[in-house]
Amino acid sequence: MADRAIVYVGTYTGPLGQENPNAHGLGIYCLELDTASGGLKLLNVAKDVADPSYFALNSAQTHLYAVNEVGEFNGEKTGAVSAFEINPDLSLKFIGQKSTGDSGPCHVFIDKKDEWAYISNYSFGSFSSRQINPDGSLGDGFQLIKHESRVGAPPNPDRQESPHAHSSVVEPIGERLLVFDLGLDEIKTYVIKPDGKLEAGIPIKTAPGSGPRHCDFSSDGKFLYVIHELDSSISVYAAGDGLKLLQTISGKETTGYNDAADIHVTSDGRFLYGSNRGEETIVCFSIDQESGLLTLAGHYDCGGSWPRSFTIDTTSHFLIVANQKSDNLVVFGIDQETGALSKVSEYAIPAPVCVKAYAF
Q1: pTM of the entire structure?
Q2: How far apart (Å, rounded) are the C-alpha atoms in residues 134 and 53?
Q3: What is the chain's mean pLDDT, rounded?
Q4: Which of 64, 148, 184, 351 is least surrounded, with the fewest CB atoms within 10 Å of its CB?
């Protein structure tokens, strides 16, 4: 049987202040993508999962790990991370939950050996690692690292009043852990010791007021692409032996208010996309295969409001946008020659904030 194109979607299930006061998602949704038409069909929903705003699968695709973006867990001011076993019907079986050590976790990354979950706690700018047991459950091995506040006044006082760790990734070449801190305008670097402990390296500064948020690598791991939330720019780094800045280019189409969010490269490495909340667009760049540099290819309406997250299916034929404030997923076909997007379907899901596509 051909691989099934499966899409998991995390939602906000409770009120989160001004950003989404009426969140009403049910938990983590599982849908199937029709690779001929681009249509989506609901398979099941894992309910009673509090605010699963970001998740990741292990490399074997047997388990899913979701952060619970809450301010209190087990009577303490901390968020949580939940582990699920993926059943044969692709539904999720809850197998445990642990503290993230700080409140407001917003991102989780699983290392390629499926031994550690790396969690970014946005609220107060801390970062934690949680050990994963051989059976996929969350273990007791744990480390919490708090980022120190910057010296002097921040460029953006409203958003950079303190550290705000937003995401992390392990380099495919060099295998350092990189943590992107929006509040500090820094890419924190950590050496991963044999016992799993993290040892801080020299941070990499980004432009003042840029607010690094998420990243993606080229398919060969030679280039790193970082999207900055606050100035809506994308930076290109030569990866491997350290990070060397090669280019910074704007992802905005207009001069109005905007918060950039997600970023992904197609599996063939030819196109890069970024999402813009505010101007409500998806930006497309073509990628020079030799230099890794970006050239603007177009902006496309996201089909809703507040494109918090998007995903590209494993064949790079479809791009699926999670529009948080308009309660919908929008599927776009990707032109294989130009990278242009054309809407092919839509599916209603309340308060979607994380969407990822997999082949099963």
Answers
A1: 0.96
A2: 25
A3: 95
A4: 148
